[in-house]
Recover the amino acids of this structure.
């Protein structure tokens, strides 16, 4: 059974880069047909899919965040990471990593397609 755990700073200053790591246990992140995603939920708002990295290393990003977002993976550590640059207080949210083995074009950009989730980590952007 796949288990995911987010880690990283809970406080980031405006204009800096938010960086989070997701550690995966229960299976390799190179497992065929799996996608590893980042989803956030600002207070009082809906979940927002940010992007994902596939088992093959291909990356996919939300159009609204693409210019600021980078997702990568370290297969030796069974981890994948999120970097969100030039943050503002509007980036304050609970950030989740999650996984899906969905099939179909673009299925990985829907939060409800994700089967396994980390517990989430609060990130506050403030000076």
């Amino acid at each position: 059974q796949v288990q995911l755990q987010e880690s990283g700073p809970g406080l980031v200053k405006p204009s800096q880069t938010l960086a989070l790591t997701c550690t995966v246990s229960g299976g390799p992140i190179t497992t065929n047909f799996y996608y590893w995603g980042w989803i956030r939920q600002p207070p009082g708002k809906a979940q927002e899919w940010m992007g994902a990295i596939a088992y093959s290393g291909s990356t996919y990003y939300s159009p609204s965040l693409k210019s600021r977002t980078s997702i990568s993976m370290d297969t030796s550590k069974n981890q994948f990471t999120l970097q969100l640059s030039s943050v503002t207080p509007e980036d304050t949210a609970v950030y989740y990593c999650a996984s899906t083995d969905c099939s179909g074009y673009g299925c990985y950009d829907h939060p409800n397609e994700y089967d396994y989730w980390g517990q989430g980590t609060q990130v506050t952007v403030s000076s």
